[in-house]
Amino acid sequence: MDNRTEKKREQKPLTGSFRADGKPLDIFEYEQAGGYEALRKAVKSMTPRDVQEEVKSSNLRGRGGAGFPTGQKWSFVPTGEGAPIPRYIAANADEMEPGTFKDRILMENSPHMLIEGMALAAYATGAEHAYIFLRGEYVTAARALEGALAQAYEKNYLGKNVLGSGFSLEMHLHLSAGRYMCGEETGLLNSLEGKRAMPRAKPPYPQVSGFMGKPTVVNNVETLCNVPHIIRNGAAWFKSLSLGQDGGTKIYGASGRVKRPGAWELPMGTTIREILEVHAGGMRDGYKFRGLIPGGASTEFLIEEHLDLAMDFDSLQPAGSRMGTGTMIILDDRTCPVGMQISLQSFFARESCGWCTPCREGLPWIVHTLNSIEDGKGEMEDMDLLLDQARLLAPGHTFCALAPGAAEPLMSGVKYFREDFERHIREKRCPWPME
Amino acid sequence: MVTVYIDGKPYQVKAERNMLDVCLSLGMDLPYFCWHPAMHSVGACRQCAVKQFRDENDKKGKIVMACMTPAAEGTRISLKDPEAMEFRASVIEWLMLNHPHDCPVCDEGGECHLQDMTVMTGHAYRRTRFKKRTHKNQYLGPLVNHEMNRCIQCYRCVRFYNDYAGGRDLGVFGAHDNVYFGRHEDGVLESEFSGNLVEVCPTGVFTDRVLKKQYTRKWDLQTAPSICVHCSMGCNIIPGERYGTLRRIRNRYNGEVNGYFICDRGRYGFEFINSPERIGEPYLSSGDVPSGDILLLSGKEAGDAKILKGRKILKEGEVLPHLRAVIGGAKGIIGIGSPRASLEANYLLGRLVGPENFHPGFSAAESVLVRQMVSILSDGPVRTPSLKEMAHADAVLVLGEDIPNTAPILGLALRQAVRQKPMERVIREMKIPQWHDYAIRDAMQEERGPLFMATAAGGRLDGIAAGVFHAAPDDIARLGFRVARALSPNAPPIEGSFTEDALSFADRAAKALREAKRPLVVSGTGAGSLAVLQAAANVARALWEGNRNAALSLVAPECNSVGLALIGGPGINNMGIKDAVKAVAEGRADTVIILENDVFDRLDLPDVQALLRARQVVVLDHLPNHTISSLHAGCVVLPAAAFAQGSGTLVSSEGRAQRFYKVFNAPSGRTAESWRWLRDLLVDLGRPGSESLFSLDEVLSAMGREFPAVRGAVEAAPAADYRIEGMKVPRQPHRYSGRTAIRADIDVHEPKPHEDADTPLSFSMEGFEGQPPAPLTSRFWAPGWNSVQSVNKFQSEVGGPLRGVDPGRRLIEVTGMGRVSYFTDIPGPFTPRADEFLVVPLYHVFGSERLSAMSPGIGELVPPPHVVLNKTDAESIKALSDMKEARIDFGFASFRLQVRPDPLMPRGVAGLFPYGFPGLHGVVLPAWGKITAPENARREKEEK
Q1: Whole-complex ipTM
Q2: How many CA atoms does the CB half-sphere of B146 hold within 13 Å?
Q3: Bridge partners of B395?
Q4: What is the arithmetic mean of pLDDT over A215-234?
Q5: Interface contact flag, A392 B87, Cβ < 8 Å
Q6: Which of B46, B152, B436 faces A397 most closely, judged by CB atoms?
Q7: What is the pLDDT of residues B365-381, one digit of tens each?
Q8: Among the four given CATH numbers 3.80.10, 3.30.1490, 3.40.228, 1.10.1200, the one describing domain B384-549
Q9: Between the CA of residue A215 and those of A74, A158, B424, B845, what are the distances in Å?
Q10: Which CATH architecture has domain B2-98?
Q11: C-alpha B378: how far from its chain's center?
């Protein structure tokens, strides 16, 4: 690691100001750390277009997993004379991706950062209403946000005529009833409207027809939290934080049998090996690394040979995977890969909204088949069936990305651990002893 | 038009379509489930997957859903691509993981879209070894059966029931592979369109519960094209018969009329036809009920067998001589026609008795209204639209008519009309194609176009209306006159004051109508008010001055009211049937022939008594009614065929003449269509010209010569001698089973098929097997498409007209500048009377039409009768405050009814609900009546 990288690693705009005791920063602490300077700057001295341009040139890409350029997303919102009103901003805080807990950390520790980011996004797109769509189980974050919202209103960072600028914003906290589909941006909007959390057909995109049929931007929490820093310090600074093309830092995480499971804010483009071996402390004693899924459950497995790849939006593609949320789940040698698949696939099957046929019917079939293999009742043809199903659940075949997301760890899991599957079938039992 | 490429071949297609629609319109077979031609695309089922290629160099392509792919210039897709075919078969395989293999015991079997699509994709082998998921079923009422295990989660049921038809009590519950479609708990489905679930569901989840009572497969049903007789909208239907009983009714697509849907009254109201109480033989009345002492019988008593006791059956060969004697000995005969009988029957009755003695059988009030209605439509400048056109109106004013209860399918059209304006905005501003239903609804949300409802009481469309106004008929009319004046200075000024609510309603309605591209005014005879009709005509005329697309639709009371008005001759006058009473009372006639009419519905009780005192009364009808049970001894009753047992022509509110065809011969063998009885009598009497009145066609042409207004009725369907490749069109499907065995318990010899000289249809499975002209289409069925979805194959393009042209011939067209100018007879504001109420009819879809209410399924849904009063009025009748019942006294007749206070009811007005309930006879509404507490009345009586 050269000095430049080392220096970058010290820059932690998102988490650097966190309190040591894990309590949320109150508004004074947040302001002391430079908080709301960006909002003040924007509403006083920048046009909404300026804010959009700054974010665009920062190369900020969506941290929810898909990596869509944030500034570009905002630019699709129709603004100006005759554009539809009201417009909306929604923070996707329905963090339900298995193994992912980065947004929780941000909201629990620095709720104002999200609020300021949303206010900036609202300013940039001319939105008058903002919703924080929060995962229902995130009670601690909810309390932190409730308190922060009250403070922000009190100091006129929210509400009518923000800081005397003429810009007004009402922000609401909405607790989700709890479906994975609510994390899909259009499922989120349906849920927010009181409808079933089913995804919508795109196009039209939410920026054109979103909440209540009006232009709406849905951004991930981590994405929004980056915005105040970009506006305060500039796009060039933000780009300089990264080791690669995409701007900024990234909150990476690791779970599984590592010495120090957790999450760390690191320069975008840090290698998997560094995250795993340096920050997570490597495998726990007595456990060997077998593979990992890099960003939540809906990404492809990677194995030993991929560890030196950089964790960013583009570098994992040649290996057939993607960064996703950047919070990896590690498979060790004492965990049954079939069992891990069952956990993953059961989750996806359960969280299918039931709208489109392949997802609704295909995923349970996969789960039944995997359970059968795990129980020693599998047949060799089941391997073909699993691969068939994974292939048929391709993007575009289904209504949204849920089932293709489920197919990613399945397809790659069978590819890398096929022998383990077949051993189950041959031996008519799970070869892993119960721990 | 754009060029698209399907499997390499170029096609010129309409640009605003999606590729599934395109493929089906081109006659290709591409399977689908969630897409529906009336409800469009949502992309849920993934069954219509095809391969799309970027351009001619793209060899890899990607799987897309045809229903979600716009037909853009240069779109290239492949249906035959192996990957697409594999995926389509996989979708069926997924659906079949849980779908029970119970086709042999499933009511849908043989006409199941899922069966058809399964065969179409080629999926045949079951690979899964896991258990199927199961659900509990619900009781959904007497009309629709629920069997959730068969569900393939296409979401069509809720999309139809809620999104399209405005229902609220059918929902989606659960998630993932445990999605449940049903009510929150067992109970009767609330929507009057629930029966469409049977056709909308692609498999056997929702099936016909009435059919289940005497189940028959589609292939065993004898069917013929028919027209619904339960309101004036003229919905096209396909009744199906087996073993001499009518088993079910299915929708018959007509692009201009009912499209894909009919209401439950139309679908399930047919059971009266199978009633054991049907009059099966001609007889002479026993006269158990002496004339002059006519009692008001309850509906049940009317149908009681006791009235048949002592009657004398007329044997074969006795009927015509007896009738000849009756007519020969008559000192003046009058004929009373019927707005529910065919044009042909009414016309021949007129021929028999002479035009001056023919009374159309309307009550005096109805006669005035129907005459005015036809005059407005024929002589006014404003066009009467088809139902399809009404569904596309972008602003609607309803004056006085309770549409969901008097013309349900028009209510469904208005539910689509309120979507037009916001939908056009969304399409224009967001560039969402019209077929992209999911996105359109998300973009539109709850936004609705202008619908303004002015009715006596609250109704089911109020919830989607931009403005509602509840008032007495005169005040509704005044409101209409005010709207007309706001629209045009040529409309007559209106004096007197209005409430603020009325002013705001009128201004907003006028503004919405003026700004609309396709404004529509709807009214009708339901309010019983001439002023309301005239006000509607004025609004339409005022609109028309500025917008030639303005349309005016008037709802007639019954299935052939308009037809009867067109051939009513001098009988269409202000007196209606009262003229006949007068003729009898004055001794100008002593013989009365009543055609399919219960005069108790048309006359006040004293008039009924006067009429039935005639020396001789001849009645032709299907079922015992109050008229029949009140006949004195020796009167003749002739068994008349009900709609599915005869052929003839009806004219709908639109003025559309439509032919209905005999589906089967009435089992009694002695039942005949009324027109046939009358023809036989004319021939028997040797009346001049009767020799050329033998066939239905001859009757129609003679009628057309005499009444030019209905000349077009001949063109409503092909003539009897029409043949295709020398063949008739069979009523029995190509797979009809049991032909030789069906009567084996009676006679082992197979009888000769019934001849049908009157139509191009045959009572046989032999004949032309292809697609006949639309008016002769007896069933929708195409190779590979056994279900009702096969209708795609009968249309010129998906959702378009049936091949050739949609059936029916419009008899009323505007001729440019109308002869009717503005009506100026504006009533004063309604003033409640101190001691009386204006009693108005309040309708209910189930109960306000008598034939359907006699069908057990519908009968179960008829609400208990009651009188609706404004809350303050109800309380002001002091004794009522602790009384649940009230006595409504019209002087000559009185009724005891439960009271329902309703804050929406106007003061001084009482509503009888549901109008037409059994026992409500001998009173023509609206009428003034006293309302008292029954106890008071009793005490008064005691004091006397």
Answers
A1: 0.96
A2: 21
A3: B519
A4: 98
A5: yes
A6: B46
A7: 999 999 999 999 998 99
A8: 3.40.228
A9: 10, 20, 18, 42
A10: Roll (3.10)
A11: 23
pLDDT in tens, B105-124: 999 999 999 999 999 999 99
Contact B43 A362 (CB under 8 A): no
Per-residue burial over B814-832, b if 16 or more Cβ lie within 10 Å, else e, is: beeebebebbeebbeebee
Nearest-angstrom CA–CA distance, B365 and B848: 17
CA distance B233 to B223: 21
Query: Do A358 and B94 lie within an 8 Å CB cutoff?
Result: yes
Arithmetic mean of pLDDT over chain B: 93
Q: Which A positions 200-219 lie with beta carbon below 8 A of chain B?
A: 200-201, 203-204, 208-209, 212-213
* Cα dist from B488 to B483, B484, B540, B547, whole Å: 9, 6, 10, 11
| CATH of B837-943 among 3.40.50.720, 3.40.50.150, 2.40.40.20, 2.30.30.100 | 2.40.40.20
Question: B49 — contact with chain A (CB < 8 Å)?
Answer: yes
- All structural domains of chain A, each given as residue ranges with its CATH number in brackets, are 3-240 (3.40.50.11540), 249-332 (3.10.20.600), 337-427 (1.20.1440.230)
Q: What is the mean pLDDT of residues A284-298?
A: 95
| Nearest-angstrom CA–CA distance, B622 and B479 | 42
pLDDT of A435 reads 58
In chain A, whose CA is at the least distance from the CA of B442? Answer: A213
Residue B674 and residue B687: Cα distance in Å, rounded?
18
The total of other beta-carbon atoms located within 10 Å of residue A179's CB is: 24
- With contacts defined as CB-CB under 8 Å, which chain B residues touch A201? 42-43, 68, 436, 438-439
| C-alpha separations of B650 from B232, B566, B655 in Å | 9, 11, 9
A384 has a chain B CB within 8 A of its CB: no
Give the C-alpha distances (Å, rounded to integers) separating B551 from B396, B582, B694.
10, 39, 40
DSSP element (H, E) containing A290: strand A289-293
The CA distance from B771 to B730, in Å, is 11
Give me the amino acid identity at B815.
T
- Put simply, whether A84 touches B (Cβ < 8 Å) is yes
Q: Which residues pair with B648 in a beta bridge?
A: B660
> CB-CB: which of A368, A392, A398 is closest to B130?
A368
* Interchain contact B128–A (C-beta under 8 A): yes
Cβ contact B788:B768 at 8 Å: no
Q: What are phi and psi of B612, to 5 degrees?
A: -75, -5
Compute φ and ψ for B173, nearest 5 degrees.
-125, 155
Q: Domain limits of chain B?
A: 2-98, 384-549, 837-943
Residues contacting B625, CB < 8 A, separation 6+: B302, B598, B600, B850
Enumerate residues 179 to 218 of chain B having a beta carbon within 8 A of any beta carbon in chain A: 179
Which of A361, A377, A391, A400 has the most B C-beta neighbours within 10 Å, making it the best mutation to test the interface with B? A361
* Amino acid at position B143, single letter: L
Q: How confident is the model at residue B291 (pLDDT cuts 50, 70, 90)?
A: very low
Minimal Cα distance from A364: which residue of B? B177
SS3 content of chain B, % helix, strand, coil (to 5): 35, 20, 50
Asked if residues B79 and B49 have their Cβ atoms less than 8 Å apart, the reply is: no
Q: Cβ contact (<8 Å) for B43 and A179? A: no
Phi, psi of B98 (to 5 degrees): -115, -15
Same fold, B384-549 and B837-943: no
Instruction: Give the residue from A392, A393, A398 with the most B CB atoms within 10 Å of its CB, the best one to mutate.
Output: A392
Q: Do B47 and A354 touch (CB under 8 A)?
A: no
The pTM of the full predicted model, rounded to 2 decimals, is 0.96
Using one digit for the tens of pLDDT, what is the confidence trace for B266-289? 999 999 999 999 999 999 998 765
**Taking CA atoms, what residue in B is nearest to A77?**
B430
